[in-house]
Structure prediction request, 399 residues.
Amino acid sequence: MLASEYFQREFVINSSGHLEIGGCDLVNLAHTFGTPLYVLDEQRIRLNCRTYLEALKNVYPHFEVVYAGKALLNQAICGLIYQEGLGLDVVSGGELYTALQAGFPAERIYFHGNNKSPAELLMALRHGVGWIMVDNSMELETLNQLALETKTKPRVVFRLRPGIEAHTHTYDQTGQEDSKFGMGIHDGETMAAVKSALASPHLKLVGFHSHIGSQIFDVAPFKAAANVLAAFLAKVRTQTGFVAQVLDLGGGLGIAYNKQEKPQALRETVAEIGRYTRECLTALQYPLPKLVLEPGRSIVGTAGTTLYTVGNIKTIPGIRTYLSVDGGMTDNPRIAIYQAVYEGVLANKMNEPLTEVVTVTGKCCESGDMLIWDLPIAPPSTGDLCAIFETGAYNYSMA
Prediction:
């Protein structure tokens, strides 16, 4: 059986039997740039950006798609995202610096993070960052003081904990009550912060945000979050008179890392989130705020492939064959952290049948340094090129 049949993927294979991505021979790329090598398919990223925009345009009147830079950020990505009409979400001074160096407009940047330092907040204020996503009451106090000192008036969005547990890995859950992220909406914390922000002449509260988690395949938790937040917006209006201009539902839609994972179609899922959010707000007779979605993984995840050179091959009779490559958990820690399951091939042997089963391991002095367990593969040799798919998100950024 060939790789295309086993993995149920459509591969572009050239006359040399090499795998191509975006019109590029991966073997040639490895020879030119060396390995390990992250390869990104620009057109795939652009297509994913456009899918989000097109999915929302007919279901919600005023929206913005904001790319979550934590998934993968460099100056080239910043330029590409801007060209496609997306805003940018950053979570550190380093990411903000990268975006500004790339020429990304500061007014279209959303600055996230649960523990922004005063220096990072000052950086955001001095560069005129468009939206500061305040995570907690202490940050609100710090920002208020810094805004006073710098004579600025930043737009503020509060991050909330909607109390929703998404069905995903525990470390990917972020919207439950017990979370390091966001303010509680059921214990009075957020309402007190709203009143504080509205009373401050140095802050401009504009809305609310939640992010329920990552690698989520089901639209139901997003709809639940929309329902909870819409009800909270109505409650805030009743108690304070404040009407939100922004409702940010975050990101979190998952991708298929392997043939066992079956996410719902991206366009239909995004459209359903927008449609349902509008219905929730309309039912409460609440003026529709700008709807913000913050995709990261679903923009770049499927666009990435990592290339490795095969080194030593060790067979333990009756147990396992280890195929060692020149990278590992240093460039993809997701296997060790999340037990993620990837798929891969020998990019220089695409026309050869998969007759062997190997475990792809890295070169770190750590037993947990595994990349793929029990991978069907063509007969391997030292010097072969191993390509591992869906590495666009949370690989380079976690390396």
